[in-house]
Design a protein that fits this description.
Order of helices and strands: EHEHHEEEEEHHHHHHH
Number of helices: 10
Helix content: 40-55%
Largest sheet: 5 strands, mixed
Structural class: alpha/beta
Strand content: 5-15%
Number of strands: 7
Distance between the termini: 27 Å
Shape: globular
């Protein structure tokens, strides 16, 4: 999904902490490379980041600025960091008016770009956890290096909507936080019918819901961020959803599939719920908790 070249971006909506350096290594748990990346991929569980012992990143590493040189949609088409920024802008334009129909206010979440590691309201995090949303500070965190991992290690398409899907998924967790559904992942975190899987699939559906409306004008400014969706764009998003299915990840890592350990849902489920949000444009169709089998 390409950006409208003339769209005016607001880089102040994204904090840029890249290149700020790191403090001491986090002790005791969140490291571990690909294993924990797979376990926490697209995660929202603050317990992944809390109480791990060791020291957190030093405060002076957390100075920040806005994403540089991200001014127009043309910049978003040319640069990944600007594409993340433009997607954040689009999401923040869409969700307030949409949720207002349901008498729900949308306090704008923060978004952070980082590299290697950063401090969060949920504790100190490294890039190993992948993109994640922290409900404590209502912030979505993205290491842009992950998006190449998504292609190289998980076999996803590298198309724009594959990347934008990741951002929209994390913002979907913010919407769940506002609607009171996010905690259901904590109550029942694992298994094919678990609350954890249902939370993740609902965030996929919310990502699809955004994609349904993303090419419409900003209700406040009237500007259009994104060009019309093509069939290739849709295939790119579905490729990313499939690439991060629990069954596919488990099969690649160990040669076997263990549904009892699922936390995010199968490739087919993730594609199904993104597609449901996209085709329906209706948040009521994203109730993964109302169906016997998500």
């Amino acid at each position: 999904m390409s950006f409208n070249d003339n769209a005016q971006l607001d880089p102040s909506q994204v904090q840029d902490r890249r290149g700020m350096g790191r403090g001491p290594m986090i002790g005791g748990g969140i490291g571990g490379g690909i294993v924990l990346l797979l376990a926490a991929l697209f995660g929202i569980n603050p317990q992944l980041l809390e109480g791990m012992g060791g020291t957190s990143l030093e405060p002076q590493t957390q100075s920040q600025g806005t994403a540089p040189a991200c001014k127009t949609g043309a910049d978003a088409d040319a640069r990944l960091d600007c594409r993340i920024t433009g997607t954040v802008n689009s999401l923040n334009a869409f969700w307030p008016a949409y949720l207002a129909q349901y008498n729900t206010k949308y306090p704008r979440p923060s978004a952070v770009l980082f590299s290697a590691g950063t401090n969060t309201g949920c504790g100190a995090a490294t890039s190993d956890v992948g993109p994640f949303y922290c409900p404590v500070d209502t912030t979505a965190y993205f290491d842009p290096g992950f998006f190449q991992e998504l292609v190289d290690r998980f076999g996803s398409s590298g198309g724009p909507l594959a990347q934008e899907y990741v951002v929209a998924h994390e913002f979907g967790h913010h919407v769940q936080n506002l609607l009171g559904d996010l905690d259901k992942a904590q109550q029942d975190p694992r298994g094919p019918q678990s609350g954890g899987v249902r939370v993740e699939l609902q965030a996929d559906c919310y990502a699809g819901l955004w994609a349904h409306y993303a090419t419409q004008p900003d209700p406040k400014t009237g500007q259009t961020y994104l060009d019309p969706l093509t069939q290739q764009d849709l295939q790119d998003a579905l490729s990313a959803a499939s690439a991060v299915g629990d069954d596919r990840i488990q099969k690649a890592a160990s040669g076997r599939v263990s549904p009892e350990a699922w936390t995010h849902g199968s490739s087919a489920q993730r594609q199904k719920w993104f597609s449901r949000g996209y085709t329906s444009g209706d948040i009521n169709q994203c109730d993964t908790f109302a169906v016997a089998t998500p």
